[in-house]
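Question (not urgent): is this output format expected?
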Amino acid sequence: MRRLIPMAICYDFDGTLVPGNMQEYGFIKKLNMTPSEFWNTANGLAKKQEGDEILTYMKTTIDESRKRNLPITREDFRSYGKDITFFEGVETYFKRINKYAKSKGVKLQHFIISSGLKEMLEGTAIAHEFTEIFASTFLYDDTGAAVWPAMVLNYTSKTQYIYRINKGCLDVTDIEGVNRHVSKECKPVPLTNILYIGDGNTDIPCMAMLNKAGGHTLAVYKEGQKERAMSLNRDGRAHMVALADYREGKKIDQYVKAVIDKIAADGNLQHVISTK
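Got this back:
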């Protein structure tokens, strides 16, 4: 029996699968802060200390929780993840796209690559749809409270996870494996068979890298905020721009299926060429 053609779709999360940032759905409300107060504090710290904005929002998460005597555990983060709501069609999209890919002889895997918090993402209604969730995480003390960043994904470090998927090295602690040379024909998911879907500046390095390697890229936008996505397209970062509507027949659905069709056709052609 012929092997299915491997393919991966990688998604940013905030602004890509959900409107806004994940912290705004439950956690910031629990702090009795507005989103602007929280992000102004975090980004102000980054500017003042010349720090990474991902690290400073994680520090702000801990600091503001301690001020309110509100320790944050993994389970607390996961409970906040349950409050997250998605763009139209997201919750029915995965089953539909998986079925379509299988009908084309494609083995499709989904991954999140996010600067947000893995612990929150694990609590969302769609967490089970992903082969792996790559995102920022915390270290926890003996009481279970978050005390320090353990893993940080920013706009440049995100590209590492494309290579992990490409090489089949999904264990984030395996530094040797992700850097080990693997011949092109032995990589489980070719870069040409990876689609990246994102919405903003933190996605640019992943998009640029995949475009150069022959992969596929899509920039999505929220209603009334098309210009940022269009700039990614004009600058050669994203092949396609679409409203963040994941329902059947909408532009995202059409584009993803077209990419599946292309990957299936390329795989079939290669099979014919290589068959003696």
